[in-house]
What we know:
With 154 residues, the chain is an alpha/beta fold. The protein has helices at 26-43, 61-71, 90-109, 123-153, and strands at 17-22, 50-55, 76-84, 113-120. The mean pLDDT is 97.
Amino acid sequence: MPIVRIEPDTRGAGRRVAIVVSRFNPRIGDGLLAGALRALREAGVADDQVTVVSVPGALEAPLALQRLAQSGACDALVALGAVIRGDTYHFEIVSNESASGVSSVQLEYGIPIGNGILTCDTDAQAEARMDAKGYEATMAALELANLIDAIGER
């Protein structure tokens, strides 16, 4: 029996996608969102199938993602934001807990979530990565949505 390979597929036509973006570092959030929306357009996701919601910060993103997952109205989710290192331990807490929350929602609800929450030492690092990371997180979410469907068809 031959090996079955499921190839990567980032097509978005017919997909419903929600993006949760943190307002805490607004310039970075806007850049991340621009990259995410560009990815959705290139993948063929219709504008009327995209929902964008904002939350105060990265720690609030998992709850919004959870509610979106519970709604059943989305095929994929994207989390966007930036946590910039400061002089206190707060950076580690926010970075770790937001990533843990995003992963928990993804696994609990079986919905793909592209994690585009940047964790950087400086604003300059975040600015250099924002467009690409928003794009890449969105494409990862679409790829996983298609992978889940392909696995379900086997």
